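Quick one, T. Sequence first:
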Amino acid sequence: MITSTLPAPADLRDKRESADASATAWALAARAGDADAVDHFVRALHRDVLRLVSYLCADPQAVDDLVQDTFLRALGSLHRFEGRSSARVWLLAIARRAVTDGFRHAAVRPRRYDGSDWEAEAERAQPRGVPGFDDGIVLADLLGTLSDERREAFVLTQMLGLSYEETAVVSGCAVGTVRSRVARARVALMELVV
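Structure tokens:
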């Protein structure tokens, strides 16, 4: 008999809820001045912030800066975090605002390039030979075909594992809107893959 090696959805949900509860506890402890809790808080949520920013940001060179900006903003306003939502949802909402502010900043101060072939230079600056790089390019291209709202809802729910309710909080819209965006994103991606 062949058994699945993947955990059951309930197990995944329990693990995520446990991780969210731990991250929220660390955020509250960090708020109270515990330096070790700050480290645990950042380490626990760094990957999720990095993934969200990577998929929302149009400039791969700006991702690390935006992730750092997200944590600086969060740590600077940690004294206002009350734990009404999970620290993960709170932090991802901050990350979303950091990306939006990054777009606004880039629009106001465009980069200049004095060379004749800036597109070729930008292409050469991209990392190569990293495991999963080609799959990441294909996924980024597929996600790039979606509208910003649908891409955000899809990434938050399907890639980062947030519930529809948590995604609604991060996105600032109704739960039904999130469900609709995810469903339409799935249909659009399936049409592209098939």
